[in-house]
Amino acid sequence: MGKVLHDSESGQNLALEKTFHKGPWTSAEDQLLTAYVDKHGEGNWNAVQKHSGLSRCGKSCRLRWVNHLRPSLKKGGFTDKEEQRVIELHASMGNKWARMAAQLPGRTDNEIKNFWNTRLKKLQRLGLPIYPDEVREQAMNAAVQNGQNSDHHSQESLEPDCLEIPEFDFKYLQLNNYQSVLLRNAPMGNNMMKHCFFQPNNMYNLIGSPYMSPNRKRVREPETDFLDTGGYATNVQSGQLWNYPFVEGNAATYSSPSEKLELPSFQCCDPLGDWETQHSNPMPAVESDSTLVESPLTDCLSSGLLESVVYVNVN
DNA sequence: AAATAGCACAACCGCAATTGT
DNA sequence: GACAATTGCGGTTGTGCTATT
Fold first, then answer.
1. Which amino acid residue lies closest to nucleotide C19, measuring CA to C1'?
2. A99, A211 in Cβ contact below 8 A?
3. Boundaries of CATH 1.10.10.60 in chain A?
4. Is A113's CB less than 7 Å from nucleic acid strand C?
5. Cβ contacts of residue A146 below 8 Å, gap of 6+?
6. Residue A143: per-residue pLDDT
7. Within 7 A of a protein CB, which nucleotides of strand C?
8. Exposure check for chain A: N or C terminus, fewer CB within 10 A?
9. Alpha carbon separation from A280 to A173, A216, A277 (Å, rounded)
10. pLDDT of A261-276, one tens digit each?
11. What kind and span of H or E run contains A5?
12. Which residue has the least CA–C1' distance to nucleotide C14?
């Protein structure tokens, strides 16, 4: 890249201004950055280009180091255990990639984010639930317990700086009685019912956001776009407990101009009404990300948790 | 063989928080 | 306290590879 000319006010005097190289990193650049960090340590990233000869901005250097060059990074795909952990963490804290990465040694937020988004797309395309059955079961159990114990929202439990995340703690999940009844009374064979309930948005809206701390002020996106009715959400428009099918495939792309949902809401239907009716409606000829029905499980799926998700749906 | 879709990954961007002056 | 610089985070996009049609 090199340099770019910037017009001065008059447009006559052109000054050379340093710009930074973009795009994929070369091994030479990696070496320069690694050498710099070895010598000076992490941090002060804007000084890198000044002292190392790298023509990269500080942000880019930091990102490269954190995501690729750090010696502690784990290489290779996610193990089943790591997958499980990611799912649990996501169920617990949402799109808090950095926090999730802190719980997964050797993994970066970017890795986790990519993993999750890929997984999400895949599941959405298949019309499958985001969270495996066992995760949902745990959540439901916790929800039932919470129904008996209202002390789940203690100040202590909301302590923001408490980054220590329980193995899989759904104690923050809150369900009101109505939802609990719904869950308990859902027909056993009606997986759709359960799926609806534990789709991401719902899950998120069930969470008391314990990690969005008062101290840690970073509040970049609304925790929910739904009415907060005490730990769970209702659809603003319909007043129902369920979200309507969403249209865009990716969580990140599902947003209104003014506000963003943290997760996609591709939940199905009116749970109180005629799920059967809706479910029996002819579906669009072409399946898209906005298609919410469970599609025939003809796709070949990768091994691991995803398969288990498929399995529970088939049965 | 070419076109297309899906996937995995890398990197950039904008914004907000934090830190330094 | 105000401002600027730096850092960190999450969303998004681009690219290359592979599988499928």
1. A300
2. yes
3. 3-69
4. yes
5. A152, A171, A173, A174, A175
6. 61
7. 5-13, 20
8. C
9. 32, 47, 5
10. 344 333 333 333 333 3
11. strand A3-7
12. A23
Nucleic strand C contact set for A 146-205 (CB, < 7 Å): none
Residues A201 and A120 sit within 8 Å (Cβ to Cβ): no
Candidates 1.10.10.60, 3.40.50.10260, 1.25.40.10, 3.20.20.70; CATH matching A3-69: 1.10.10.60
Q: A239 pLDDT exceeds 50? A: no
- Tell me the C-alpha distance between A6 and A38, whole Å: 36
Length A96 CA → B11 C1' (Å)? 19
From the alpha carbon of A220, which nucleotide's C1' atom is closest?
Answer: B16
Over residues A141-188, the pLDDT tens digits come to 766 665 544 333 333 333 333 333 334 444 333 333 333 333 333 333
Give me the CA A220–C1' C10 separation in Å, rounded: 9
